[in-house]
């Protein structure tokens, strides 16, 4: 069996707290494809690395 990389998954509530947005905003980002997620049953889990990358990306072009 191949070894899986050491990936930490976060709940939608944890992502919302880290990003300081509502859970609904996180769901919108997931459904729009802007934030990758894995569905486990009826809930979603977001890789921690995806949250870190999303926070580093510029949201709007200011200037």
UniProtKB/TrEMBL annotation:
It comes from the Bacteria. InterPro entries: DNA-bd_dom_put_sf (IPR009061), HTH_17 (IPR041657), SinI_DNA-bd (IPR010093). Residues 9-57 form the Helix-turn-helix domain. This is Helix-turn-helix domain-containing protein. The lineage of its organism: Bacteria, Bacillati, Actinomycetota, Actinomycetes, Micrococcales.
